[in-house]
Amino acid sequence: MFASFRLFLFSACGAAMLGLSSCGDSQQPAASTSPDAAVAPAAKPAAAPVTEARYECPMGCAGSQSAKPGKCPVCEMELEKKS
């Protein structure tokens, strides 16, 4: 009786581990069969990103981020420039 229970428990644990190991995050993109997909497109030079000044509350209040200076809408402190 005890041996059959151990065998059942061992089999159930093995099946559970096998089933859960196949649920990983390893998602691969679908393979394309078109011949054009094998040729990589030429890389375009990246445009320089435009960085604008960002102002935030020194207390880190939610919703205090702004593109221009002013006061925090939550605590009324002056916003600080963060670049």
From TrEMBL:
Keyword Signal present in the record's keywords: the answer is yes
Instruction: Extract the GO molecular function terms from the UniProt entry.
Output: metal ion binding
Organism superkingdom: Bacteria
InterPro entries, sorted: HMBD
- Give the range the annotation lists for the signal sequence: 1-18
Q: Does the keyword Chloroplast apply?
A: no
- PROSITE patterns xrefs: PROKAR_LIPOPROTEIN (PS51257)
Alphabetically sorted, this entry's keywords are: Signal
**What would be one Pfam family of this protein?**
HMBD
**Residue ranges of every copy of the Heavy metal binding domain listed in the record:** 55-82
The name this protein goes by in its record: Heavy metal binding domain-containing protein
Q: Which species? A: Hymenobacter cyanobacteriorum
